[in-house]
Amino acid sequence: MLGAARAKWVTVGAATVLAAAAVLAVFSEAPAGLDPRGCSLDRSLNPPSFPEHAFGFDLQGCDLLVLTMAGTRNSLLVGLLATIFALAVAIPVGTTSGFTGGWVDGLVGRLVDLVTALPIILIGIVILSALDERGVLLVAIVMAVAAWPIYTRVIRAATSRESEQAHVDAARALGASRPRLLVRHVLPGSLGSVIAVIPPTIAFTIGAEALLSFLGAGLQLPDVSWGSLLAEAQRYIRQAPHLMLPGLFLLIVTGAFVVVGESVRVRVPD
C-alpha cells in the first residue's frame, strides 16, 4: 500500500515537472526583460546571482536561464513534432500490417527491423550536416525517422491481438466489411497500447536531439536547445560550472517522461 502511494506521488511529481516545462516552453520569451538576445560581454561567464540571474551568464554574456527556457521550448517542440510525424506513418502502416497479416505483415516487419538497426545518430549527423539550415522542423523530421519503427511495432502487435478478440469475430460474422472492422472495432482497442509508449519515446527523441546538437549537427543559431548549450559548457566547465545547468533540465524532463510513461503502462490493459 505504501509502495503504491509512493509511486502515485512520484507520478504526480513527474507530471508536475512536465507541466512546468510546458509553461516555460510556452512563455519562454513572454516575461518582460527575458530577451535571449540581450547579451553583454562584460557579463561573460558571470556566476549565478539570485534572484535576478539564477543561472548566471554564458560566454557571450547572455542570461543562461533565458537561454535554457528557449532551449526548453525547442527541445519539447522537436519531441512533439517528431511524435506527430512518426504516428502519422506508424498508425496506418502498423494497423494495416497487423490486421492484414501474411506477406504484408512480413514486409513491414522486415522494414521496421531494418530501420531500427540503422545507427540513427550517425544517419542524423550525415543528413543534417549536409544541409545549410537546420531548424526545429527539419530536426523533428529526422527524429521521426528514428521514432516511427517503435510506434509501428507496438501498433502492429496490438492490432494483431485485437483482431482476434470475440467482439471483432462477432462483427465479422454479422457481415461488417474489412474497412469497418478495422476502423470501428480494431483500431480503437489497438491505440491504447501506443499511448504508454509515447512519453518514453519523446524522452528518447529529446535526448537524441540533444546529442545531435551537442555534436554540432542539430539545431543552428538562432535556435538553441539543451544540447547546444551543453556543447558550449564543455569548454568552460572548470571555470564556469553553472553552464551545466541546462543538462540538469535535460535529465529531469526526460526522466519525468519515462516515469509518466511507466505509470501509463501499468494502467493500460494488455
Task: Give a verbal description of the structure.
This protein has 270 residues and is mainly alpha-helical. It has one domain (57-267): MetI-like (MetI-like fold), CATH 1.10.3720. It is built from ten helices and no strands. It has helices spanning 2-26, 64-100, 102-117, 120-129, 136-162, 166-173, 178-195, 198-214, 226-233, 245-267. α2 (64-100) packs antiparallel against α7, α5 (136-162) crosses α7 (178-195) and α6 packs antiparallel against α7. The protein is elongated and about 75 Å long. Mean pLDDT is 82; it is low at 30-34.
**What would CATH call the homologous superfamily?**
MetI-like
Give me the CATH fold name. MetI-like fold
CATH architecture field: Orthogonal Bundle
> Terminal Cα separation, in Å?
23 Å
**What integer is the average pLDDT?**
82
How much of the residues is beta strand, in percent?
Answer: under 5%
Give the total of beta strands.
0
Over the alpha carbons, how many angstroms does the gyration radius reach? 22 Å
| Largest beta-sheet characterization | none
Number of helices, where a helix is a run of at least 4 consecutive DSSP H or I residues: 10
Q: Point out poorly predicted stretches.
A: 30-34
